[in-house]
Amino acid sequence: MESTINIEDMTCGHCVESVTKALEGLPGVSEVTVLLEEKCAELSYDEAKVGLSELTKAVEDAGFTVS
Fold this sequence. Notes:
By secondary structure, this protein is α+β, with helices and mostly antiparallel strands. The protein has a single domain (2-66), classed as Alpha-Beta Plaits, CATH 3.30.70.100. Helix content is 33%, strand content 33%. The chain contains two helices and four strands, in the order E-H-E-E-H-E. A four-stranded antiparallel beta sheet has the order 2-3-1-4. The longest helix has 12 residues, at 13-24. The two termini are 20 Å apart.
């Protein structure tokens, strides 16, 4: 499955790194690309292992707002 998550509050490379690390740490996530200027994360994941709500929670737990 491929999805794009819109993320507010990202302002720098450290933010990108934090979001990337949060998403890559979840089981079933195979690819993550976080785009600072577009304020989003594009990812590929296995729906049988992780859902969109878990992905959203990981980003929010890292301190960012999902819109």
